[in-house]
């Protein structure tokens, strides 16, 4: 049994020290230690939403020959982190987060390796399945490192103290004379004991004889030093498994024919031709369209294309981008009269829809039986997914298991779980296990996307300075298509990496540059007066490293932005070659960042690199057109996310040292990069960009 | 159904498949070789990039009938046992991958580029069309340059 949740589900209730309602937060947030089958040291740390847990351990009562059960926190909505040290000298932490490329498994492995003094290669970080005890799991908001940093280190520190104490007793030496390194305890005389050889004894330790507290930051040897991803070898050899790569449960390839316009419904289906094709196993109706289950995806696509379906036009079949833009603009309340005696600079900005477009299209494996169901898919919200799926297929939640798979990107896409839910309905209707995959064009034309959004900005200038900066916004929302304001649309929408900051930062910075020009101020100097001390530090750094204000060829320009969010701040300086205005190239991106304590500088740089390319793409070329009730783009041929030739030749990240607690970084780069690209383009071309993407 | 024999990663295989079945689904659904990924099905995103007789192909748009008697290499066939191909090693050294989904295709495209041009320029590297939605492009460029230096 390699999944603690499964064990917990089978554990007798009285064997589980449940968290009682009314118990204090402190007692509920203990790190709890007990023996698992007498051979594995197991600890559980709840991840409190508020203050981090106080590391305090106690032994559980002897568990005799009870089946393995190691989930000790029940009936609360707290998240849990479960750590095992096995006899095979493996350290394993079940992570209640999803890995979608942001590097959270590597960051957590580093935290654990640091406090245990384990080798990084001995630390494994499988993704925890969706909890089955009513708690929730969530990955998002650039919150993972922030929420895991204290609990993960405390969990490992408690384990280390027990392992050291166990070795001290074995050798009859004072525990304080022992040290730990490379997943071993080492005695002064050179004797060594692997952690694995100490697990059984360690799990019986009631009072560790050395500190269970995490190290001081000054003693860190793993945290703060660049590390490669722990899964890198699997990723470069093709061994890493994504949902679509699974061969489980006999699941059969499945695709869905979807309506040509949003909200269209099936009027009639003639599936006789499709069913007559070889390799077709089932054709079933689902709310999203008509699903085909087949022997291979080739057969499934062929049968899908052979379906003769008549569809109703959806409720927005006559609506295109132009109407959306005018409705958004009209929805804003009138501006109050400006301050008397001031001069205004206005901007009305439009952002197109943007697809999340992770490289891995939505995929889910579902095996729905009459009395139980099992799922495999990548999800930022697996516990919500489990609850919704259980309701949709009319099974009790306890009969539904959701395995969380690594994702081939997400960018917010997997906050919802369209594929998991749809796969459940298809598997149930087809009475067989299925592997559902959305085609790439389904992914663009039917999947969640950043909503089309309008901004209105007004800066007021008086006496040689800016005296007011007002920003209003309106965006479309998920609705029926029949709402009075015309902004409710039957389109699945969702948060896109950095949510509204990726747009609000842009409009503010574009106007700030126009204000600075009007006031004859330098954009960097002008911004310095508006940002925090941390903001000034990152801004000064990019201005120096990126040689702000250097002379550039005609048609080139620099742009700069500072963004503070997620308890972090970043500055970005972009140089663009817009000699060909329709085909500009961002030549250089220099970023400086203060995210507090950095766990993995290499991972942080990677996140900012991704943010920079997101900024380049969404500002210059990547968006979706709503065209008579449907999305025009159907592949990466027309959704123009940056390719190598659009990516900066020079890219540099400067990490400012900090002793503050870790801040968020996953989304941080997007707003600053987007704004800096917009301003670089504006300066290079002498234009005032108002609609994004610019070349669309 | 027609029968096709060819070599995948130095092993002979025989499959029964319709002649127009894309190699991608032959690899993934019939042979269980899942390194090449589906990302678009129309040869654009290039997540499936592999080699046919040593040249770059997108298996999602190559019908199986065109592979008869030929040699297919996927990401799984690039390393020599535990010994990574220099491009894979450069990918590790530069910590290129984020989500990793496009990286088998990126690596196979880079190997093909280096086979054509042992010391590619920035302009040569810019011609790689493979999409990386995580935006790892700068590290891809570094890794190709590094691998070229070792070649």
Please provide a written account of the structure.
The complex is a heterodimer of chains A (696) and B (151). By secondary structure, chain A is an alpha+beta fold. Helices cover 28% and strands 23% of the residues of chain A. The longest helix of chain A is centred in the N-terminal third of the chain and has 28 residues, at 144-171. The radius of gyration of chain A is 28 Å and the shape is flat. Chain B is an alpha+beta fold and 151 residues long. Chain B contains 5 helices and 5 strands. Chain B has helices at 23-30, 86-93, 103-116, 122-126, 137-150; strands at 3-8, 11-16, 50-52, 55-57, 71-73. In chain B, helix 2 (86-93) crosses helix 5. The model of chain B has no long low-confidence stretch (mean pLDDT 97). Chains A and B meet through helix 6, helix 8 and helix 16 of A and helix 1, helix 2, helix 3, helix 4 and helix 5 of B.
List keywords for this structure.
heterodimer, A: about 700 residues, alpha+beta, about 25% strand, B: five-stranded mixed beta sheet, 5 helices, 5 strands, about 15% strand
- Mean pLDDT of chain B, to the nearest integer, reads 97
Helix content of chain A: 25-40%
Over the alpha carbons, how many angstroms does the gyration radius of chain A reach?
28 Å
Radius of gyration of chain B (CA) equals 15 Å
Structural class of chain B: alpha+beta
- Main-sheet strand order of chain B equals 2-1-5-3-4
């Amino acid at each position: 049994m390699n999944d603690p949740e499964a064990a917990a589900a089978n554990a007798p209730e009285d064997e589980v020290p449940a968290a009682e309602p009314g118990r204090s937060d402190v007692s509920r947030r203990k790190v709890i230690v007990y023996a698992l089958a007498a051979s594995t040291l197991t600890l559980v740390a709840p991840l409190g939403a508020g203050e981090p847990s106080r590391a305090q351990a106690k032994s559980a009562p002897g568990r005799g020959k009870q089946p393995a059960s190691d989930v000790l926190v029940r009936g609360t909505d707290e998240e849990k982190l479960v750590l095992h040290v096995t006899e095979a000298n493996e350290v394993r932490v079940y992570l209640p987060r999803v890995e979608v490329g942001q590097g959270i498994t590597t960051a957590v492995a580093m935290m654990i390796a640091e406090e245990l003094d384990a080798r990084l290669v001995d630390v494994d970080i499988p993704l925890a399945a969706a909890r089955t005890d009513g708690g929730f799991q969530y990955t998002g908001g650039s919150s993972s490192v922030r929420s895991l940093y204290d609990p993960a280190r405390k969990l490992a520190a408690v384990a280390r103290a027990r392992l050291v104490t166990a070795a001290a007793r074995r050798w009859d030496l004072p525990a304080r004379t022992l040290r730990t390194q490379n997943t071993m305890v080492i005695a002064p005389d050179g004797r060594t004991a692997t952690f694995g050889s100490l697990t059984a004894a360690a799990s019986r330790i009631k009072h560790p004889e050395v500190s269970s507290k995490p190290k001081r930051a000054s003693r860190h040897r793993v945290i703060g030093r660049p590390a490669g991803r722990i899964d890198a070898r699997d990723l470069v050899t093709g061994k890493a498994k994504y949902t679509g790569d699974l061969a489980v449960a006999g699941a059969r390839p499945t695709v869905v024919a979807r309506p040509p316009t949003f909200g269209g419904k099936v009027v009639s289906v003639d599936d006789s031709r499709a069913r007559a094709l070889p390799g077709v196993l089932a054709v079933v109706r689902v709310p999203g369209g008509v699903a085909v289950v087949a022997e291979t995806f080739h057969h499934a696509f062929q049968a899908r294309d052979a379906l003769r379906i008549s569809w109703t036009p959806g409720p927005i079949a006559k609506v295109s981008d132009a109407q959306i833009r005018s409705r958004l603009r009209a929805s804003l309340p009138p501006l109050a009269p400006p301050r008397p005696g001031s001069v205004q600079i206005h901007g009305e900005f439009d952002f197109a829809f943007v697809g999340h477009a992770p490289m891995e299209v939505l995929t889910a494996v579902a095996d729905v039986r009459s009395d139980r169901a099992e799922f495999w898919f990548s999800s930022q919200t697996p516990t919500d997914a489990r609850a919704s799926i259980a309701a949709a297929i009319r099974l009790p939640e306890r009969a539904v298991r959701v395995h969380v798979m690594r994702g081939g990107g997400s960018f917010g896409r997997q906050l919802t779980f369209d594929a998991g839910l749809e796969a459940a309905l298809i598997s149930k209707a087809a009475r067989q296990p299925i592997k559902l995959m959305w085609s790439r064009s389904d992914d663009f034309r039917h999947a969640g996307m950043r909503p089309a959004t309008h901004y209105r900005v007004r800066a007021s200038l008086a006496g040689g300075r800016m005296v007011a900066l007002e920003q209003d916004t309106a965006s479309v929302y998920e609705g029926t298509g029949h709402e009075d304001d015309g902004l409710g649309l039957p389109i699945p929408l969702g948060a896109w990496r950095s949510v509204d900051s990726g747009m609000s930062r842009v409009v503010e910075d574009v106007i700030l540059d126009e204000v600075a020009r009007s006031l004859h101020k330098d954009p960097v100097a002008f911004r310095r007066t508006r940002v925090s001390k941390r903001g000034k530090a990152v801004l000064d750094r990019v201005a120096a490293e990126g040689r702000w204000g250097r002379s550039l060829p005609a048609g080139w320009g620099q742009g700069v932005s500072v963004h503070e969010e997620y308890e972090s701040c970043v500055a970005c300086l972009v140089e663009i070659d817009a000699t060909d205005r329709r085909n500009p190239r961002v030549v250089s991106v220099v970023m400086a960042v203060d995210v507090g304590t950095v766990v993995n500088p290499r991972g942080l740089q990677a996140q900012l690199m991704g943010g920079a390319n997101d900024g380049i793409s969404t500002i210059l070329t990547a968006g979706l057109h709503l065209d008579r009730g449907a999305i025009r783009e159907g592949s990466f041929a027309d959704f123009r996310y940056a390719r190598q030739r659009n990516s900066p030749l020079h890219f540099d990240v400067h990490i400012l040292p900090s002793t503050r607690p870790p801040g968020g970084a996953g989304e941080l780069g997007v707003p600053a990069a987007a704004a800096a690209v917009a301003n670089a383009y504006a300066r290079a071309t002498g234009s005032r960009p108002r609609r994004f993407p610019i070349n669309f | 159904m027609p029968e096709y024999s060819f070599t995948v990663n130095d092993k002979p295989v025989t499959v029964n498949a319709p002649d127009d079945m894309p190699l991608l689904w032959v690899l993934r659904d019939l042979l269980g070789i899942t390194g090449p990924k589906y990302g678009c099905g129309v040869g654009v995103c290039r997540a499936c990039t592999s080699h046919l007789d040593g040249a770059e192909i997108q298996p999602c748009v190559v019908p199986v009938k065109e592979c008869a008697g030929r040699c297919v290499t996927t990401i799984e066939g690039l390393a020599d046992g535990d010994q990574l191909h220099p491009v894979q090693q450069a990918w590790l050294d530069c910590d290129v991958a984020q989500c990793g989904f496009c990286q088998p295709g990126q690596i196979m495209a880079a190997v093909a580029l280096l086979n054509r041009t042992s010391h590619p320029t920035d302009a040569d590297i810019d011609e790689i069309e493979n999409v990386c939605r995580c935006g790892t492009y700068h590290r891809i460029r570094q890794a190709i340059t590094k691998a070229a230096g070792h070649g």
